[in-house]
User: Which sequence fits this backbone?
C-alpha cells in the first residue's frame, strides 16, 4: 500500500458486502421446489466453473422456467430487511465516516432497492443502483458513472469494495480505482484471483476495513514526511 494514493471515498457493493443474500436463495429454492441446501450447493458448483445463478436454476429445476417466477420471488422476498444486513456493516461504515471518508453504496441492483437501502438507515452518504446509473458491472461505464456520481476525477482516490473477482475487483482495477476484495458469500469464497492481480486490500469481514485504511493512511503520511525506521 505504501506509495499509493490513500482513498478518501469508499464505494461498496451491496450483495454479500452489505446484504447477506441467504434469504434470496432460500426463497428461490422454495419457488423451484428444491431444498435450500441443494440450490446453494449447485450454485457453488456453478460459481466454481465460472457460471452464475442462471446456470444453477435450470440444473436443479429443468422443467421450470425460472424467469416466469421473478415477480413471485420479489413478492415473497419483500426487499431488504434489517436482519439481512451483515453484523459487521453498521459499525464499519460508521467508523469509516468518523475517519473522514465518504461512504457510498453502489451495486448491480434494481432501482427499487434504493429506497430499501435508505430505509435501513445505514451510516452512508449516498446510495445508487445500476438501474439508476443505466449500466451494470462489469461494464467500465458503471465505474465511470460511479466516479461522476461521487464527483471524483482521480479514480485512485476511490476504493471499491466487492465480493466478486469478475464483477468487482478486475473491472474496478482496470478503471483505475483502488480495490478491496471481501471474501464472503458464494463468489467471495469460491472465485480465485488471476496470478497477476493483487487487490489493494483483501478482507474476510468488513470490520477489518477501517483499521486497514487507517494503517494505509499512516504509511502514506510516513512516506510524505520521510518517517520510518531509517
Assistant:
Amino acid at each position: 500500500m505504501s506509495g499509493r494514493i490513500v482513498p478518501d471515498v469508499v464505494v461498496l457493493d451491496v450483495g454479500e458486502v452489505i446484504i447477506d443474500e441467504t434469504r434470496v436463495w432460500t426463497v428461490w429454492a422454495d419457488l423451484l421446489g428444491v431444498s435450500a441446501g441443494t440450490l446453494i450447493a449447485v450454485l457453488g458448483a456453478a460459481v466454481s466453473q465460472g457460471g452464475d445463478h442462471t446456470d444453477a436454476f435450470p440444473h436443479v429445476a429443468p422443467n421450470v422456467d425460472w424467469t416466469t417466477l421473478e415477480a413471485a420471488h420479489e413478492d415473497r422476498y419483500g426487499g431488504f430487511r434489517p436482519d439481512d444486513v451483515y453484523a459487521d456493516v453498521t459499525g464499519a461504515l460508521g467508523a469509516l465516516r468518523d475517519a473522514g471518508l465518504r461512504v457510498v453504496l453502489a451495486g448491480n441492483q434494481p432501482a427499487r432497492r434504493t429506497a430499501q437501502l435508505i430505509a435501513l438507515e445505514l451510516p452512508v452518504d449516498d446510495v445508487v443502483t445500476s438501474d439508476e446509473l443505466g449500466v451494470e458491472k462489469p461494464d467500465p461505464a458503471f465505474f465511470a458513472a460511479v466516479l461522476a456520481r461521487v464527483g471524483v476525477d482521480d479514480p485512485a482516490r476511490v476504493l471499491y469494495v466487492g465480493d466478486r473477482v469478475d464483477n468487482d475487483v478486475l473491472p474496478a482495477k482496470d478503471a483505475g480505482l483502488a480495490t478491496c476484495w471481501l471474501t464472503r458469500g458464494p463468489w467471495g469464497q469460491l472465485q480465485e484471483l488471476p496470478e497477476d492481480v493483487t487487490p489493494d486490500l483483501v478482507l474476510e469481514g468488513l470490520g477489518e476495513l477501517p483499521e486497514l485504511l487507517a494503517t494505509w493512511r499512516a504509511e502514506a503520511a510516513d512516506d510524505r514526511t520521510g518517517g520510518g525506521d531509517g
Summary: The chain has eleven helices and six strands. The longest helix spans residues 209-225. The radius of gyration is 19 Å.
